[in-house]
Amino acid sequence: MKEQNIQLDGSTILVTGAAGFIGSNLVKKLLCEVQPVYIIGIDNMNDYYDVSIKEYRLKQIEKLAEEHPESTWQFIKGSIADKALVDSLFEEYKPNVVVNLAAQAGVRYSITNPDVYIESNLIGFYNILEACRHSYDNGQQGVEHLVYASSSSVYGTNKKIPYSTEDKVDNPVSLYAATKKSNELMSHAYSKLYNIPSTGLRFFTVYGPAGRPDMAYFGFTNKLCNNDTIQIFNYGNCKRDFTYVDDIVEGVKRVMQVAPEKKNGEDGLPIPPYAVYNIGNNQPENLLDFVDILQQELIRAGVLPEDYDFEAHKKLVPMQPGDVPVTYADTSALEEDFGFKPSTSLRDGLRKFAEWYKDFYIK
């Protein structure tokens, strides 16, 4: 186990993508578990998916912030691709810890709308790195730890499973994956040049209540409710390491508290204080089994009628461009360094999603 070297209590934390799925859950966790904490959230609230879900997440955060008056929550609507805005946030709030979760997500969307991936995932991330670099100007304490979202997509068509952070990841099969790999490379360079402690997290298929509607489980639910047919890719022979959102944010919080150590090599120059971890369930599930449990839980929650004919609403189809047949995380480094392994079962996670879906859409 690595020793905590970052104190979150009393610290100022910048969370980018704060209205996003993982970002909003992280902010809620920090408000509940760290006292006091000063959180600045930024999100551009784009309409890649239903903005009302982002607004719902922000309302939940605001409610929690009222319950924790010892802490502060400040939300800024804006884009990390806006360099002047990012610089002004760092100048005004001087964050101790930065968690960069703002990114254009989605594999398939990157095929039709590449521009937004370059803007958010490359230019936006560059702006964050530059702001971290200049946070040390004039002898200031600066950013103690930059934690950022990478993705399991970086593993591309790697044949060896489970995927390990030791594996070579030079064969992305989508622009999205290429931007995430680029983030890791850029971060490494900045860690080396400016001694910025940074940790990248490769997330594996995150799901849960108030999740992203572009994710398969959410899209399937919408279609089943509309009596449409769902398409199951690769004829159902896909396996995904589905990871429940609460497990993800627990992992992120633990990682935030352990910044890679600053030390010099034999040449007297800094060894990059840089790390990358997988956060996944370490237990890939067959897509067909996943969808079967999903429909059972949707029936149980009253989202679908009890006599719903699931078989009549599914269609097995070939693989889509940019997709991979299996994602499977080797999480041994995460367990070893942080004593943590995701543990929420698929049924428990999908049950919580189904209950939320009913409350949000059906009541």
TrEMBL record:
Residues 14-352 form the NAD(P)-binding domain. Keywords: NAD. It comes from the Bacteria. InterPro entries: NAD(P)-bd_dom, NAD(P)-bd_dom_sf. Signal peptide: none annotated. It holds the Pfam family GDP_Man_Dehyd. This is NAD-dependent epimerase/dehydratase family protein. It comes from Sellimonas intestinalis.
